[in-house]
Amino acid sequence: MYSPEERQRIKEIFNKSPIMQEWLKEWSEQARIEGLAKGRAEGLAKGLAKGRAKGRAEGAREGKIKKAQEAICTYLKIKDAPIAPKWLAKVRKVNDLELLDSIMVQLFQATSKEEAQAIIQQALEKANEPSSR
Q: pLDDT grade, residue 42 (50/70/90)?
């Protein structure tokens, strides 16, 4: 577009002109404000997207936990009726999905009411250990 000599001449004129210096300050400030606004908007959008994704993941995990709790309680109601309501309440307090999955697998393999109750009792004890929280 411009030769190096032309650029140098324009630069010298620009640097000597007070009005050009004032415009440069205004343009710089405007660019800074626009850059900040754009950065904030991008940051907010990324933060919201990340928050939504985290919320969906947490919601899905909570849903899986509730389903596992209910599956165990339903199993106990059907297979081991009448089961003490306090056991059902305790199962519903277990929030460790891996532990709940383990309980379900073991319950489906249990061959007696006593074995099922022992599985639940051991799981509840494990759920109350400090390392499980």
A: very high
| Domain enclosing residue 62, as ranges | 4-132
Which residue in this structure is represented by tokens 């997207």? 49
Distance (Å, whole) CA 14 – CA 78 = 88
Total domains present in the chain: 1
Closest CA to 98 of 129, 128, 123: 123
Region label for 31, one of left (φ > 0), alpha (ψ between -120 and 50) or beta (otherwise): alpha
Condensed to tens digits (0 to 9), the pLDDT of residues 5-37 reads 998 998 888 888 888 888 888 989 999 999 999
In the chain, how long is the greatest CA-to-CA distance? 96
CA-nearest of 87, 55, 63, 64 to 74 is: 87
**Is-contact 68 101, C-beta < 8 A?**
yes
Write down the pLDDT at residue 16: 87
